[in-house]
Amino acid sequence: MAESTRSARLGDAEIEQALKGVPGWIAQGGKLHREFHFRNFNQAFGFMTRAALCAETMNHHPEWSNVYATVIVDLVTHSENGITQLDFDLAKKLNGISEEFNKRKGD
Question: Model's pTM, two decimal places?
Fold first, then answer.
């Protein structure tokens, strides 16, 4: 998919359809939103570190916060003032990173 297509603002119906491909995410306040829960702070911080590296390679950066073992993430394409395919692409990658951390034992 061309970069200009990936960063075009999606309509409500497109967002609802795309949400089916990113378990755990919801559309809230004009952004994609998810809370990730880990076993401890070390895992949460490790997730954020890996996620930051991924986001940097995509040049698409999340709005997020962390309290102990919870990371709250909001995704929006500010240049389009809304949700785009780029947000869904990053959401899928964050889900994958989260799954890797949740498979670990004892971190």
Answer: 0.91
